[in-house]
Design goal:
By secondary structure, the protein is of the alpha/beta class. It contains 6 helices and 15 strands. Bound molecules: NADP nicotinamide-adenine-dinucleotide phosphate (NAP). The site of NADP nicotinamide-adenine-dinucleotide phosphate has 22 residues, from helix 1 and helix 2.
Length: 305
C-alpha cells in the first residue's frame, strides 16, 4: 500500500516521504480500515510516540496521522461491535502506525460508526477537534449551561469546535486570537472576541472555564481570570499556570466512541461544522504538509477519491 512515513525527527514535516509499505494485519480486537480520509497534526512529529514504542524502542519508519474516516475491511480475532463493510471514523493509537496510508490496523473500540450521509472528509475532520473540545469542555472542564468560557484560538481548528460545542451547551463564549481571526471566531459562535495583540485579556473579568490552546504567558495570565471553583484546561502541555482557587487540567485527547457519536449527531443536525482549510490527495500529501503559505483550518488527506 501507499503510505507516508517519517524517519528523521529533526527534519519535521520536510522529512515526510511517500513510500510503499506492506498492508497491516488485524491483531486481537483490531479492525483493518481502508482509509478514505485522514487527518494529521504537525505537532505529532515532536511527540515521543511518533518515534518509539511504549518501552522506548525505535519504531521508525513510522506512519503518522491518527484521525481517520473509512471502511472496515477485516476483523481481528475476537473483535466485536463492528463489521466488514461498515463506515467508521475515529482516533488511532499514538504508538502504532497511523492513518496517512491506504490501510490501518486499529482497535475497534477507538472507532465509531460514521453515518452514511456524512462525507468521509467531514468525518475525518471531526475527530481530533471534536474529541479534544468535548473532553476539555465537558469531562475536564465540567462546563454547565449558563457558565462562561474563554476559548483561546477560537478561529483555529480545536478552538472553533470548542466554541461551537460550548455555545450549543448553553455557555457564554468569549473567543480570543489574532485580529484576523475575529470574524471567523464570531461566525463559529463566540459572543465576544478578544484580540490578544491589541486588547487587554485582563478586561475579560471573571470566567468559569478557560479552554487554552496557546500555552505560555497567555495561559498564565488566563489563570488569574478564573472564578473560584473554576478550571483552566490546556492542551499544549504543562504550562505552570494555576488559578488561585480552581483546577488546572493538562490533557491529551483519547479515543471515545460515545463522544464521537454525540459529535457526529451535532454535525448532522447542523449544530456544529468542521473547519477544513485544505484537502489534498495522498500523492500530494508531502506538499500539503509543507505549504508555501499558512493554511488556516484543518488539512485533510483524501486517501481514496
Ligand atoms: N493535547 C491534545 O490532545 C491536543 C489535541 C489537538 C491539538 N493539540 C494542540 O493544540 C494546539 C492548537 O491546535 P489547532 O489545530 O487548533 O491549531 P490552529 O488551528 O493553528 O489554531 C490556533 C489558533 O490560535 C491562533 N493563535 C496562535 N498563536 C497565537 C497568539 N500568539 N496569539 C493569538 N492567537 C494565536 C491561531 O491564529 P493564526 O492561524 O493566525 O496563527 C489559530 O487561530 C496545537 O499546539 C496542537 O498540537 C493538542
Amino acid at each position: 500500500m501507499k503510505a507516508i512515513v517519517v524517519t528523521d525527527q529533526a527534519a519535521g514535516t520536510a522529512g515526510v516521504k511517500l513510500v510503499e509499505r506492506p498492508e497491516p494485519q488485524a491483531a486481537i480486537n483490531d479492525v483493518v480500515v481502508q482509509i478514505h480520509a485522514s487527518g494529521f497534526t504537525g505537532d505529532e512529529l515532536s511527540w515521543p510516540s511518533t518515534w518509539t514504542d511504549r518501552v522506548g524502542r525505535d519504531r521508525t519508519p513510522s506512519i503518522p496521522g491518527h484521525e481517520l474516516a473509512g471502511m472496515v475491511t477485516a476483523l481481528g480475532y475476537g473483535t466485536t461491535g463492528l463489521s466488514v463493510g461498515q463506515r467508521v471514523f475515529g482516533l488511532t493509537d499514538w504508538y502504532r502506525d497511523g492513518t496517512l496510508a491506504e490501510y490501518v490496523a486499529v482497535e475497534a473500540r477507538n472507532l465509531a460508526p460514521l453515518p452514511g450521509d456524512v462525507d468521509f472528509t467531514e468525518g475525518a475532520a471531526l475527530v481530533m477537534p471534536g474529541l479534544t473540545a468535548w473532553q476539555g469542555l465537558f469531562e475536564h472542564g465540567r462546563l454547565q449551561a449558563g457558565q462562561s468560557v474563554l476559548v483561546h484560538g477560537a478561529a483555529g481548528v480545536v478552538g472553533s469546535m470548542a466554541t461551537q460545542l460550548a455555545r450549543e451547551a448553553g455557555a457564554y463564549v468569549i473567543g480570543t486570537g489574532r485580529a484576523a481571526g475575529r470574524q471567523t471566531a464570531l461566525e463559529f459562535g463566540a459572543q465576544e472576541f478578544v484580540d490578544l495583540d491589541n486588547d487587554s485579556l485582563e478586561d475579560v473579568g471573571g470566567v468559569d472555564l478557560v479552554f487554552d490552546v496557546l500555552g505560555g504567558d497567555i495561559a498564565k495570565r488566563s489563570a488569574g481570570l478564573i472564578r473560584a471553583g473554576g478550571t483552566l484546561v490546556t492542551i499544549t502541555g504543562p504550562t505552570g499556570a494555576r488559578p488561585t482557587d480552581g483546577l488546572t487540567v493538562d490533557f491529551v485527547v483519547v479515543p471515545d466512541r460515545t463522544q464521537l457519536s454525540e459529535i457526529v449527531r451535532r454535525l448532522r443536525d447542523g449544530r456544529v461544522r468542521t473547519n477544513i482549510g485544505k484537502v489534498a490527495t495522498l500523492d500530494d500529501a508531502v506538499a500539503a504538509f509543507n505549504p508555501t503559505e499558512r493554511v488556516k483550518g484543518k488539512t485533510i488527506i483524501r486517501v481514496r477519491p
